[in-house]
Amino acid sequence: MITDGFLYLGVLLALAAVLVLVTRRTDIRLFTYVPAFVLLYICAAALNTVGVFGESESIDATGGAVQDALLPAMILLLLFKCDLRRIVKLGPKLLLTFFVAAVSIVVGFLIAFLAFRAALDAEAWKALGALSGSWTGGSANMVAIQGILEAPEDVFGYVLIVDTLLYSVWLLLMFGSVGFSERFNRWTKADTSKFETQDGPEEEGRPIDLVSLMGLIGFSLFVSATASWIGEQLPELGDVVTATTWTILIVSVLGLVIATTPMGRTAGSTEIAMVMLYVIIGIIASGSDFTSLTQAPVYLAVGIVVLLVHLVIMALYAKLTRTELFSLAVASTANIGGVASAPVVAGAFDRQLVPVGVLYALMGSFLGTFIGLTVAQLLAAV
Q1: Please, what's the largest Cα pairwise distance for the chain?
Q2: What is the pLDDT of residues 78-90, one digit of tens each?
Q3: Which one of 65, 213, 292, 355 counts the least CB within 10 Å of its CB?
Q4: Which structural domain, as residue segments, surrounds residue 166?
Q5: For residues 326 and 352, is the Cβ–Cβ distance under 8 A?
Q6: Alpha helix stretches (DSSP H) within 124-235
């Protein structure tokens, strides 16, 4: 049984390193649909379930301190590539499609929560708020909301399982939609002749080196500490707007500002942010216990209802506005899947349209946390 905080953190980092190595260096098809961070969650939670991680003040203090330090830094670095000037170039119709997709998911969560509220845990609204953050942005948004709302680890484990299963199914559906895009566009009477491909984000001009790594790590952790201190000085508003919320807001706005400057193109920001994401997920997972997974089917039903509502609303929107399937599929994937999958789905339609998928996903990476917090507040109020 591990009770030392440093050893506990070392085991999580080693486990994450092994899983990333295996998923990135092998051709096993399973890893195409189940990312390494999900496997990390499962493995870390399994270790806790069998008693590898013991209850101790050292583990709690280490995990809490590391998570509090890395969460704002991770969000800051992930937003370095989110240049609003490029997002605006998408045009009003494409931007509207993205926002309709996000709103339809919010509506889906409200309907599903009301339908299954009696069977859900008392603090399910926190975990579902985190899931909505993932389904309107990405995994980083999910982790951010979990940190803000302090959703119970067990309940958070349910929604992470739901996120993984339904995301995989949805991604397959989006890929499959390419085959009937022409028939769908005829049904909506969409005009695809005027569809303009946008330019993608600029590639990093310099390779990752010691200067960029030290600069990004030092700057992001300094901003994290400063934003946390400022957040503690600001007033709390209800259950959602806490000191952590203020901290996330500060780093998010700063990240968007930096994205418009040359600093936003510093090599290595995404890679460092992903390392931080793995550490945070490992810490969260180490507090989960698989013995309470009997409630997971209820949360799976909630997720299915959310996606059905999303599908219906998007189909109606496409018919009313004569929108082509490409925009719908990529906007939906950018919300539910995030940066990793939206460009891939866009490329399945046309390789030249990949930049649109990238920009859609970047919009979600910024907005997902705030949409998820809004959903959590709505669920807590109904």
Answers
A1: 64
A2: 778 776 676 566 5
A3: 65
A4: 5-193+208-381
A5: no
A6: 124-134, 139-149, 153-176, 181-188, 210-233
